[in-house]
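Morning. Coffee machine broken again, so started the prediction first thing and wrote up yesterday's gels while waiting. Chain of 289 residues, entered below exactly as on the submission form.
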Amino acid sequence: MDVVTDTALPPQLDAVRDAESAAAASGVVVRELTELADLEQVLRLYVRVWGRSDNPPMTLELLRALTKAGNYVGGAFVPDGRLVGACVGFFHAPADDAMHSHIAAVDPAMTGRSVGFAVKLHQRAWALQRNVSDVAWTFDPLVSRNAHFNLVKLAARPVEYLPNFYGPMVDLINGADDTDRLLVRWNLVSPAVERACSAGASGTAEPVPPGAVTAVGMGSDGSPVPGRMGADVSLVAVPDDISALRTSDPDLAHRWRTTVRDALSELLADGARITSFDRSAGYVVRRTP
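Came back before lunch.
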């Protein structure tokens, strides 16, 4: 973590404290990466996670250029020096006062250790120290664990649905499915985010409101079931494990893609907003006046 001077604002100091606490709880050290040897470890991690050695998600040359230009590359290390998590972000246009967090991954062997949470809190502290107030990123709306992590654990808020955003990305994570994404904004100093990132925070989902109506449910056979649109509060379910479904039943996985796409796109286009994610019910979508 970068050294914070005496002139740092309280949110910056709090963010550093929270990031250090999260890293300690995960048993890792998270730091900014600029040296070639560290960046090579980032590249190798991404190749392992995405399974794309012939077309890696990033290149060493690009990582080097991004860090030289002052952008963010952070990594989490276990005591033996192995990199087990990494995140790369670059700045938006100057007037936007934001950073785009483009790609992040955690070694599958570290699942359940909250390494990803520690890396994101390091990124938050790093951004606040540079007077950046927002971080944006995209994620696959069908991946329930990521939806819970982003919307509940981090308190980020979806702002746009992006159909087939990247085009074909045939790899271990995306399979041959369309690459729909939800774009989220993470206001680093909002009360909700400050609570989510504070030491000991567990990330509590918003309770499903009474009277919420199912816009997309799940049938007894695991298939998507369109429900009723137009309610004040709608619920949009997603499969429990879309990654496994893409392997076992690609056609069903694609039906989930198109059904969730249609529902969320219609709701958001009509002025509703996604406010939370429930592990059982899915996305909580509210209409606003």
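The chain has two domains: 10-197, 213-286. Going to sketch it on the whiteboard this afternoon.
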